[in-house]
Specification:
The protein is α+β, with helices and mostly antiparallel strands. It contains 23 helices and 19 strands. Strands 12-11-19-18-13-14-15 form a 7-stranded mixed sheet, sandwiched between helices. A hairpin with a 2-residue loop joins strand 14 and strand 15. It is flat and about 85 Å long. The chain starts with a helix and ends in a 14-residue tail after the last helix. The structure holds adenosine-5'-diphosphate and the ligand CC(C)(COP(=O)(O)O)[C@@H](O)C(=O)NCCC(=O)O. The site of the ligand CC(C)(COP(=O)(O)O)[C@@H](O)C(=O)NCCC(=O)O has 13 residues, from strand 14 and strand 15.
């Protein structure tokens, strides 16, 4: 069918109109890009945010950007905000086109020539959270140097290129300023986090450090790849010191660069301080007298890994980091991404080795690290020669007070009791229960002897995953707040619900009517299971269910492996007093007072700290230090070092 001439002309007009509209639109867009470059950057970033999410941790990917539809999207992490502000700033400074990622300078680990500040970090990439620690040389030490020796702060950092060097510097200044070395540490983080005194010498001698040489010789952290072994020297003690060279050989510019790189990072990290609980666990920062510096602790969700990597990249930190000691499953999973995108090598440390190393370091380094819970009317006994007796006696006393029917009611009245009165020789063997995404159970027989003996799939990930489903909340802290208000008996079926309250039959099976028979069991009886049930009841019942299960598995393993002390660690326990108290009571109850559950203030960070320590070859137990680069095969060597045949003494005969 042919077109009429009026139809043809109308069609021509329509096409012409369409064309001119698109030309005007394109011109407008181009003008907008020129006039308002940030607008287009904003768009690019928004797209990035979504795509980052997509390519993050595989197990928790959501193809439609972020979370499943219908869930509220809470912005809990400052990555996006920070990343954007940093990108704007660095783009305008360097005048680069952020529309194309290839414009951003990349450096592979091999071709990096700048300073390396990777030695101050330890990374633990877990199933839910990524934890990282960084070490900053003690500010008090800088002040002293500045006052007494006229050293600029930056110059002082040069002495602190690695933790070993920090220790060496500390040793030399300790000798010079012996009188004020204790006083100036006081009050830094309060008594609770004060380091154990008088162990520095012991530790330093274990490192074969030579006081005289400390001021004139410098141990160069070879992880930076700036080692000139041709300048190896033999010290006056006759001990060959590997990786040393004269300060004169180190060029001034390299030192300044290194100091600047550190300063840049430190000031950046301080900017993160503003985010209170979201990123940095400020309350956990502590001054280590062993290493003369402060450890800082950060964490973020592992599914945000690519955001974190972008943050590093857009701040140019990757240019000054060649390698980082890393542990956790993600150290393997993300190693290629880190190397490809950031040029940073993740030097893998065994997960369990790192956990134990970090934990033992902190237990020796900090007074007040360990604690447990006791009924509020429990009173500590006066100290005896053998401190560990205190624990034995208090256990049996508290046990007398713990009757089955008081189990729940006592929970809220339980008090936090510090447990550092345990002498180190009495420490082993102990059970280490790491409640992360899943649960790992280790028997530790000595500073370098441990074995993963068991585990459980019902862990922190189980609780957190089910809570997200049941409550729609996307904040772990909010969930814990909810749980603290909940009533689990609305959800749990009690023994009395099954037997009736007064049944004589219960005596025979050794149960009382008011204990839980089945977690969530009450929901089977109602026509509508959610009627009358609040989110807080679900959050509490689930928390107790997961915790009870972990407690029971831990107790059975402790019994099987004859350990009477059980340390519970992992971020699941952070700020989670309900679980800590429940574990303390369950272990005491089930073991009839022969075992004790203990907790540690830095519960979630031992893996990251251990990765730092192992990577730097720092140990606490008096054995010679081994730098990771001295090993032919890091993992193999590490395992070798951690196998020390210590025969555990039996604590009690199996029943
Ligand atoms: N802010 C938080 N976000 C997510 N999970 C948290 C948070 N705080 C505590 N948790 C709990 O800690 C668990 C992760 O513990 P963690 O020791 O870091 O394990 P992993 O190394 O497997 O990530 C989570 O599964 C959750 O139960
Ligand atoms: C696989 C893991 C060691 C990983 O550690 P995580 O990230 O959970 O801290 C841990 O989740 C685990 O031990 N799961 C339990 C596996 C089992 O014993 O059945």
């Amino acid at each position: 069918m042919g077109m009429h001439s009026w139809q043809k002309s109308e069609f021509t007009f329509f096409v012409a109109g369409l064309l001119s509209a698109s030309v005007v639109w394109s011109l407008g867009l181009a003008a907008r890009r020129i006039l308002f470059p940030r607008k287009s950057l904003q768009h690019k970033l928004d797209v990035d945010d979504a795509s980052d999410e997509e390519c993050s941790s595989g197990d928790r990917d959501y193809p439609d950007n972020n979370f499943p539809k219908g869930e509220k999207e809470l912005v809990r992490w400052p990555w996006d905000k920070l990343r954007k502000s940093v990108m704007y700033a660095s783009a305008s400074l360097r005048n680069i086109n952020l529309g194309d990622d290839s414009d951003i300078s990349m450096a592979t680990a091999k071709n990096k020539t700048g300073p390396c500040i990777g030695e101050i970090f330890g990374l633990d990439v877990g199933g839910t959270l990524t934890k990282f620690v960084y070490f900053e040389q003690g500010i008090e030490e800088h002040k002293r140097h500045a006052a007494h020796e006229g050293l600029h702060r930056r110059e002082h950092y040069n002495i602190a290129a690695s933790a070993l060097e920090v220790l060496q510097a500390r040793r030399s200044s300790f000798a010079v300023h012996k009188t004020d070395s204790n006083a100036d540490l006081q009050g830094l983080w309060g008594l609770r986090q004060e380091s154990v005194p008088d162990r520095l010498d012991e530790f330093a001698s274990s490192c074969n450090l030579n006081l005289k040489s400390a001021s004139s010789e410098r141990v160069v952290g070879e992880i930076c790849g700036k080692v000139d072994l041709s300048h190896q020297k033999v010290q006056s003690s006759g001990m060959p010191m590997k990786r040393t060279r004269s300060m004169i050989i180190l060029t001034k510019s390299m030192e300044v660069e290194h100091a600047e790189a550190l300063d840049n990072f430190y000031s950046f990290a301080r900017r993160l301080d503003g985010y209170e609980t979201a990123l940095k666990d400020k309350h956990l920062s502590y001054y280590s007298r062993f290493l003369n510096g402060t450890f800082h602790f950060f964490r973020f969700e592992t599914r945000r890994m690519h955001h974190a990597m972008n943050l590093i990249r857009f701040n140019d930190f990757h240019l000054n980091i060649k390698e980082i000691g890393a542990t956790g499953g993600g150290a393997h999973k993300y190693a290629n991404d880190w190397e490809r995108e950031l040029g940073i090598v993740l030097t893998k440390q065994d997960e369990m080795d790192s956990l134990v190393a970090g934990m033992q370091f902190v237990m020796t380094d900090i007074l007040g690290e360990c604690f447990t819970f006791k009924p509020s009317d429990w009173t500590p006994q006066p100290s005896q020669d053998q401190d560990h007796h205190v624990m034995d006696r208090s256990l049996s006393e508290s046990h007398q007070k713990l009757r089955k029917d008081e189990f729940d009611s006592q929970e809220s009245a339980a008090t936090n009791v510090k447990r550092d009165n345990v002498i180190p020789s009495d420490l082993y063997p102990y059970l280490l229960v790491s409640i992360g995404t899943g649960v790992s159970i280790l028997r530790v027989d000595g500073p370098r002897k441990h074995e993963r003996i068991s585990g459980s799939t019902i862990g922190g990930g189980t609780y957190w995953g089910l809570c997200r489903l049941l409550t729609g909340s996307d904040s772990f802290k909010d969930i814990l707040d909810l749980a603290s208000k909940g009533d689990s008996s609305k959800v749990d079926m009690m023994v009395g619900d099954i037997y009736g309250k007064e049944s004589k039959a219960l005596e025979k099976i050794g149960l009382s009517s008011d204990i839980v028979a089945s977690s969530f069991g009450k929901l089977v009886a109602n026509q509508n299971p959610s009627r009358g049930i609040k989110e807080e009841d679900l959050a509490r019942a689930l928390l107790l269910m997961v915790t009870n299960n972990i407690g029971q598995v831990a107790h059975l393993n402790a019994k099987l492996h004859q350990t009477r002390r059980i340390y519970f660690i992992g971020t699941f326990l952070q700020h989670n007093v309900i679980s800590q108290q429940r574990l303390a009571y369950s272990i005491d109850y089930w073991s009839q007072g022969t075992m004790e559950a203990q907790f540690l203030e830095h519960e979630g960070y031992f893996g990251a700290l251990g990765a730092f320590l192992l990577n730097q070859g720092i140990e606490h137990d008096g054995s010679p230090q081994v730098n990771s680069n001295d090993r032919e095969d890091g993992a193999k060597q590490s395992r070798k070092r951690w196998t020390n045949p210590v025969v555990p003494k039996p604590l009690f005969s199996p029943e």
